[in-house]
Amino acid sequence: MAGRHFALSKYRAVATAALLVMAAPAKAATLAGAATQSSSGADRVSAMAALGRKMFFDASLSASGRLACAGCHSAEHAYGPPDGRAVQLGGPALDREGVRAVPSLRYVLNRTPVWSASYAASPAERLVEGLEPPAGGYGWDGRFNLLREQASFPLLSPNEMANASPEDVVTKLRHARYAGQFRRIFGATIFSNPGRAFLSARLALERFELEDQSFHPYTSRYDGYLDGREQLSAQELRGLALFSEPARGNCASCHLVTTGADGSHPLLTDYQFEALGVPRNPELLANANPAYFDQGLCGPLRTDQMHMAAYCGMFKTPTLRNVATRAVFFHNGSFHTLKSALQFYVRRDTSPELWYPPSNAGDINKFDDLPPSARANVDVIDEPLTRARGGEPAWSEEEIDAVIAFLQTLSDRDVLPASSSN
What we know:
- It contains 13 helices and 4 strands.
- It is mostly helical.
- The protein has a domain at 8-215: Cytochrome c-like domain (Cytochrome Bc1 Complex, Chain D, domain 2, Orthogonal Bundle).
- The protein has a two-stranded antiparallel ribbon with strand order 1-2.
- β1 and β2 form a beta hairpin.
- The chain starts with 7 loop residues before the first helix and ends in a 14-residue tail after the last helix.
């Protein structure tokens, strides 16, 4: 796998793509078509966002009648999971597990670029540099390019809100307390066309997630530090240095920490994909089947990249904003404390016996949550993932504590810590 270096031209391309994504929903809003002629475009968008907020918090839109979008993406927890469950429960009786941990929706939504995979034009360059990792798209595997597309998945997934069809969602909307508001925005006859009504509902959810200030408040101490309004402690500054140092933690190569050329604050992600080889999580019911493997970009949920063997095992780099308030980490929820997640990061290779089971040959079954054919894709060339068993970890325990102190400065002031229950 190629390193995670970021060419400036590529960064500009990603930023441009993100702007296109931000513009697309406003254009698509006209497709839903039914706002009154007297309303301005801005009024329509704002009205849709207000409607989308009601839908986001409405548990009646699920088959169980007890699970809203906000049930997994809790507003009080940075639109991430409300507890430390590896995965959340859904389905008609709220007894069905998903297969992936719930990511935070804060910050990334209105700056996520469309899915892209760059290839060097020259065969010689490809041979020397390898493949650049893909970037963009929504979800752990980036398979949705628009939020209105992504919204279909939880609404219809048997393990989440579990509606049997789009028509089921529309029937629930027709009886919702805000059905009149829905008709005012999208037209008096909107519910007579279930296809258009379902699209309209997803557009409203999209506008809420892109517009509402609660998704991007920028109220952390680190934001204050970047603006020169707050000071960080000596330990926090040390943690920032350790986080950023290329020869050791090297975290900032993927979780960007510097302001943009326009002064915009960093989102602590580069939107690229990485194979870290996190250990298999026995908490997941899906993992009771030894033949089941979640390989991210190449399945089982995403199917269009299955032919790209080099992508197997790759998942999108999440934002680290509000990471210190979480109680579940990585795509499979295999860690439940920030400290243990960081310990894995710097000691994955120096002490693999801590994370992986023995192999049949008596060695370590390293990267056991991927099939053997995909294990060569795991990053072993970027610090601190280059070290040998028995070697010195990139950080000591004291240094990990300093990094945690820095990461705590990324928490917004309104976010509650997640419960550790799992």
